[in-house]
Each structure stands twice: as structure tokens, then as C-alpha cells.
Design brief:
- The chain is 27% helix and 21% strand.
- It is an alpha+beta fold.
- Strands 2, 4, 5, 6, 8 and 9 form a 6-stranded mixed sheet that branches. Strands 1-3-7-10 form a 4-stranded antiparallel sheet, with no helix packed on it.
- α1 packs across α4.
- The longest helix has 39 residues.
């Protein structure tokens, strides 16, 4: 049992370090979800999508409360998230900004979840779109370069969305400031940090928003009050996802351990009944 516990503990440690492993099938950063287009090293500095691949394998994306999961294997800076409502965008001019670089100054190695504003009223279920990430990094050259990646989606009503978003935050704690990202749905939270422990100030924190952000904030507040939203905070969802992933890893490790022990016993039995397992010195004649 001691060896099993040590193995399970090792699996848990490896799971927390997985984000630090570099891969050669992506640039400094990419979409973890929705699925992005095939990465090509000689195209990742070319807009709008850093790939010659055409839109394919569109991921169903909810029209409300949408999120994207980003993964980075190197420090990335001035990240901009944009979207095109064209079936096949051909240039950066086809995209409009969702979150600008002022809100995403730095992306540390690891995984991170980003909340998006709801789809505009002009969008209907079944419409196509492409989400773009644009950022700068020092990847294979000593100087900063601009990189691109795109993920193709198809809009679905949130009531019909059945996908599971692998959305959690797990960045390298030694790579930089943890507060690199500011949720556009909660811009006023930074102004009310001193009052976070006072529940009576929640309404005041949301009253300073304007434009689309104010509308979205009001909708989120309404959903929280009437119970029509997801009912889970971002931290709770992240905890569930990380817990589920860790649980799957531990179960798999335990299964592998049991399987290997069984195979060892079977090999021992086979050896006892084979010529190699016979004690020839004890045989008569």
C-alpha cells in the first residue's frame, strides 16, 4: 500500500507540473478551447490566423457566458482577443476586438480561462465565427514578434450547449504577476478592492460600468439574483474541473498499478509451469 500511495502522490505532482512541459506543435501560446487551427511554425507570425488551414471542425460555442481557455509554453505579452463573424476571415480588418492588450498585458506559461462578453443581438444560433488571439513573444528569435492563432466556432443557444470547457487557471507562479488579466465583465472590481469584504458594496462596484460592459454586468447580477445562471462561481467551476482532472489521473494510476500487479502474478504462475520453472536437480533420474 505504501508504494501505491507514493505512486498516486507522484501522479498528482506530475499533473501540477504538466503545464511546464514544452511542445513543438504550437507557438508560445494557443487556444486550449475552443480547438484552434493546425499550427504551422513558418506561418504563425502571419495574420490573421497564423496558419494556412481553412476553417474546420467548428466548436459549438454558447451565445451567453462564453469562455475561452488559453495555454502558453512561453511568456507572451500584449494579448488581444478578437472575433470575426465572417465564415472565412482573410485579414485582421475582418476582426473586431473583444479584449484589448490593456486588459491582457502578460500571459505566463500554463493554462488560463478568459470570460467573453455575450454574443451581439445580430448573431443567431447556427451562425459561424472565428476567435483570434494576437500577442507578442520572444520564441525562436531574440526579438519580440507578433503571433496569431484562430479557433473556429458555431454559435449555439446556451440551453443547448452540452460541451465541457476545460477552463481553469494554472500558471507558473514564478513567471510573473498573477493579476495580469482583468475580466471585462468586472472592470470596477479593481476600484472596490478595499470593500471586497463588505457585501453591501456589491451594487456600488457594478454601478460604474458603461456601455456593453454595464449591460453585461447587470445581466450577470440579475442571473445571480433569480437563480437562472449557472449557480457556480468561476472559482467553484475551476475547482471542479481541476478536481475532476486530478481524480481521473489518480483513478488511472490506481488502475495501472492493479493491472501491473496482476500481470506480474500471471507471469510468475506461467514461469512455475514452464520448463524454466522446473527444479531439474530435484527430478528423478
Amino acid at each position: 500500500m505504501a508504494s501505491l500511495k507514493m505512486m498516486l502522490a507522484g501522479v498528482a505532482v506530475m499533473a501540477t507540473r504538466a503545464s511546464a512541459q514544452e511542445t513543438d506543435d504550437m507557438g508560445p501560446a494557443a487556444f486550449l478551447w475552443p480547438e484552434d487551427r493546425v499550427w504551422q511554425g513558418d506561418w504563425d507570425n502571419r495574420g490573421p490566423c497564423g496558419s494556412v488551414a481553412e476553417p474546420h471542425n467548428r466548436t459549438e460555442f454558447p451565445m451567453q457566458s462564453g469562455q475561452v481557455a488559453l495555454v502558453a509554453q512561453d511568456d507572451s505579452y500584449d494579448i488581444t482577443l478578437s472575433i470575426s463573424y465572417s465564415d472565412d476571415p482573410q485579414s485582421n480588418d475582418d476582426f473586431e476586438t473583444l479584449i484589448d492588450a490593456e486588459h491582457m498585458r502578460e500571459l505566463d506559461p500554463g493554462h488560463v480561462c478568459v470570460n467573453l462578453l455575450d454574443a451581439p443581438s445580430s448573431v443567431s444560433a447556427g451562425d459561424n465565427a472565428t476567435i483570434q488571439i494576437r500577442y507578442t513573444a520572444q520564441f525562436d528569435n531574440p526579438q519580440n514578434e507578433t503571433f496569431y492563432a484562430c479557433a473556429d466556432i458555431v454559435w449555439v443557444d446556451v440551453a443547448h450547449f452540452t460541451g465541457v470547457v476545460p477552463c481553469f487557471n494554472a500558471t507558473d507562479p514564478e513567471a510573473g504577476d498573477a493579476d495580469w488579466y482583468h475580466d471585462p465583465n468586472n472592470e470596477d472590481d479593481d476600484e472596490e478592492d478595499d470593500d471586497d469584504e463588505d457585501d453591501d458594496d456589491d451594487d456600488d462596484a457594478s454601478s460604474g460600468s458603461d456601455g456593453a460592459l454595464e449591460s453585461n454586468g447587470d445581466e450577470n447580477s440579475s442571473n445571480d439574483n433569480n437563480g437562472s445562471g449557472s449557480g457556480l462561481s468561476g472559482g467553484a467551476i475551476a475547482g471542479i474541473v481541476v478536481g475532476s482532472l486530478a481524480g481521473v489521473g489518480l483513478i488511472a494510476a490506481a488502475g495501472l498499478f492493479v493491472y501491473r500487479r496482476k500481470q506480474q502474478r500471471l507471469r510468475a504462475l506461467r514461469q512455475q509451469h514452464s520448463s524454466r520453472g522446473v527444479d531439474w536437480e530435484a527430478q528423478p533420474g
